[in-house]
Design a protein that fits this description.
This protein has 218 residues and is of the alpha+beta class. Helix content is 33%, strand content 26%. The chain has a domain of 93 residues: Immunoglobulin-like (Sandwich). Strands 4-3-6-7-1-2-5 form a seven-stranded mixed beta sheet, with no helix packed on it.
Length: 218
C-alpha cells in the first residue's frame, strides 16, 4: 500500500508539471497587425490561463535576410484567457514585408509567431473633422448708420447755390453789356456830334447861299 501511495503521488506531480507546461505554449499566442491612425500596431493575444509573463519582440525581415527589431512589449496570461498587448512599431509598414513576433516565456516558450494581416500601405493619419471654432462666423449685419463721408443735405444745397457777383463767373449784367456792345460801341456819341456839326454847317451854307442869291436879284 505504501508503494502504491508513493507511485500515485509521483504520477500526480508529473501530470501537474506537464499540465502547467502545456498551459502556456506558442499556440496560445497570436499576432495581428493593424493601423491606429498614423501608428502601425502589432497586437499580441495571450490565451493561456496562467499568470506567466511573456516578452514580445517584433522583428522585420529585411531584404538581406536579417531581422530588424521594430517594437517590443510584455503580456501576462489571465485566467479568462483574454490577455493582450498592443505594440506600437517604431516605423511604418514595409509593403509586402515579413514580420514576426518572438515569444519568450522563461522555461516555457521561446519561439516565433508570424504577424498576420500586414497592411499593404503605410498607415495614414485619420481625417480630422473641423472643430466648431473653425466654422465660418456669420457675416455681420450692415450698419444702419450712413457713411461719415456722405454729403449732408445742407452741403448739397450750398454746392448748388448760384455764384455771387464777386466770383470769377460772368454775371447777368455783364452778359447784357456784351450784347449792347455788339449793337454799338462807345464811339456812337462822338459820331453823332460830328454829324450834327455837318448838318449845322450845311444848313448855314444853304442859308447864306439863298440870302446871297436874293441880294443879287435886287
Amino acid at each position: 500500500m505504501r508503494i502504491l501511495g508513493v507511485a500515485s503521488a509521483s504520477a500526480a506531480l508529473a501530470l501537474g508539471v506537464a499540465g502547467n507546461a502545456l498551459a502556456c505554449s506558442i499556440g496560445d499566442f497570436e499576432a495581428v497587425a493593424s493601423c491606429d491612425g498614423a501608428k502601425a500596431i502589432v497586437t499580441v493575444s495571450d490565451r493561456d490561463t496562467t499568470a506567466n509573463k511573456a516578452t514580445i519582440t517584433v522583428f522585420l525581415k529585411t531584404s538581406g535576410g536579417e531581422n530588424k527589431q521594430v517594437g517590443s512589449g510584455d503580456v501576462t496570461g489571465q485566467q479568462d484567457g483574454k490577455a493582450s498587448v498592443a505594440i506600437t512599431l517604431t516605423e511604418d509598414w514595409v509593403p509586402g514585408g515579413e514580420y514576426r513576433a518572438h515569444i519568450d516565456v522563461p522555461t516555457r516558450v521561446n519561439a516565433d509567431k508570424d504577424v498576420k494581416s500586414v497592411p499593404s500601405e503605410a498607415c495614414a493619419p485619420k481625417s480630422e473633422s473641423p472643430s466648431p471654432s473653425a466654422s465660418p462666423k456669420p457675416s455681420e449685419a450692415p450698419s444702419s448708420e450712413a457713411p461719415s463721408n456722405s454729403a449732408s443735405p445742407s452741403d448739397s444745397e450750398s454746392s448748388a447755390a448760384p455764384a455771387t457777383p464777386g466770383d470769377n463767373q460772368p454775371s447777368a449784367a455783364a452778359g447784357e453789356s456784351n450784347l449792347a456792345e455788339t449793337g454799338a460801341n462807345s464811339n456812337t456819341p462822338m459820331i453823332a456830334g460830328i454829324a450834327a456839326a455837318f448838318v449845322i454847317v450845311g444848313g448855314g451854307a444853304v442859308f447864306f447861299g439863298m440870302r446871297r442869291r436874293g441880294a443879287s436879284k435886287a
